[in-house]
Amino acid sequence: MKYLSLLLSIALVFIGVLGNHAQAKTDLDSLDVQAFMDGLIHNLIDERKVAGATVTIVKDGQLLLAKGYGFADVQNRIPVDPEQTLFRIGSITKLFVWTAVMQLASQGKLDLDADVNIYLKDIEVPDKFGQPITLKNLLSHTPGFEDYVMELFVNEEAKLLPLGEILKKEMPERVRPPYTQGSYSNHGTGIAAYIVEQVSGMSFHDYTKQFILDPLGMRNTTMQQPLPAQWAGQMSKGYIFDNTFEEKDFELVPLYPVGAASSTATDMARMMQVFLQKGTLDGFTLLDTITFESMLQPLHQHHPDVNPLLYGFMDLSQKGNRVIGHGGDTFWFHSLFAMLPEHDFGVFISFNTGNVMNGYMKVLEALLDRYFPDNRPLDSPIEVDEEWFQQFAGEYKVNRYQHSNFTKIVSLISRFQVYTAEGKLVVTQPNETKYYVPIGENTFREEFNNNKIAFGNNEKGEIHYLFDGMLSIYAMEKVSGFELSQIQISILVLSLLTALLVLMYWPFAARIRSNYFHKDPNRKLLPLTGKWIAWLNYTGYLIFLVGLAIIMSNPFEIVYGVPTSLKVLLVLPVLMVGFTLLMLFLSIRYLRNPYYSGLAKAFYVVITLISFLAIWQLYFWNFLGWQYA
After folding, report:
1. Are 307 and 322 in contact (CB under 8 A)?
2. Can you give the pTM of this predicted structure?
3. Can you state the angle between helices 571-592 and 598-620, rounded to 10 degrees?
4. Residue 6's pLDDT is what?
5. What is the CATH number of the domain that holds 220?
6. Which residues, 6+ apart, have CB-to-CB distance to 594 below 8 Å?
7. Strand-pair partners of 335
8. Which of 10, 210, 383, 479 is within CB 3.0–4.6 Å of 483 for a Cys-Cys bond?
9. What is the rounded CA–CA span in Å between residue 326 and residue 53?
């Protein structure tokens, strides 16, 4: 019995070791991958209310998994077929642009360090900051452009203009010098695609078909809009779930090289295979090895402890693994193209329902945890005091927004609040809070994993920037003073309460006086003219805010273009300026008149000053005038 117990103990230890090893890393085979993905995707479909999904996984040059889940057409119960069903891949389309740019650069037809204006024949990127914008800036999203969102999608085929015409009309403002910060730019990619057209003498669609898609055998991939008849029957519907699946129209993207492609999962597997094999597949060389390897090199890095910006690829490295690829989102489709070069592994996944935005990152994280787990020990925290923590506390805004028109207000929505609590840095954003511990001078890791954030200094040496360790395509900037969200909310609330007071107080006071008090001949009331001007001023302000709230409640309205209702609504802030100036003039007159009561005069002066404050807020967010062109 003693020997039996000893053998049993040894066996249990041995089994435990094997179990731990299996938990640490599960071998990749098609049966295990399929079983794992089936559970993962079905869970997401049920949890997020998704109509359908398509997945491919490649390993060691072979297609390990190709599978469809759910429906491409809910009403007609048509299932997703990974070989035949087309999904919109959104910004993954940009990889075709960067591939084309690198092809032409390897042929000596493009100089990545040259001013892009030498390639642009009928448009020009404005000169600013004493530095030109280069193709390397466009590749790494560091040209310093503002974001531009209006008419990123359209609902009329007539608005699908040639690239040059779109860029001439929508050239974004340069808001920072090149290479200072990454800020993801659709229009920067559009400029690069237009350069490919100018240098090759072909439309970008024709160039891509001839030099990328056809040679790779990607027969079910196109950027044509609307879809030609040969693919129309294969296209998955796009959906939003609101108690039931609501079918949406095919999305039209004017800057088509930045996000308009439709493709199948197996076609995207071909793309992964050629990249994982360093530019060559089945005898066709998409890119020579040296050129492809150069695409994986850093072009810019916000901080040594965060992922760098590459030559077009996104560096999505995490959990101890180098991950490169690209995400892609339209309103109704959400896709991910991710590769682990060191493991010769790639995954493409796409969902056809708006509800699952960012769900693809959950899939990637789960795959990494199961097959490529992070076995590194956690970075050791450093000892710091509370005063040291305070330099990082504050409010940060994402640097990707439009500066020059009223969509600037989007920068007010996605704010990061940073504060300290019990020796940790707390970072909150809408619907998420994370806790970080310090591991370096300006670097923190999450409390229970090695995901990092880092901070950067401004020219004064003060902490001013926050960088996400994994997502390097933008930076967060510290805000202060008038731009703080609490200040903005306070101004808005004060102005709203004042408007309501003005609209209700004078009529109410007049009714009280007429019913309960005799008129005092020695007490002179403010003239009715002044009251009417203030009343009209604040009525217009309230109408504007209510109308704006209704319009902004549907973000698709703005992305598809400026609705006529908003153009009309923008008359009100202009009228408000005129009314407020009249109120200022009358305030001065009233103050000089000794017959008016001090309280009445003070009230009129205060509501005049608050009106100026409200106008300043509207001006700051570009709602004063018709600033949307």
Report:
1. no
2. 0.90
3. 150
4. 34
5. 3.40.710.10
6. none
7. 328, 350
8. 479
9. 18
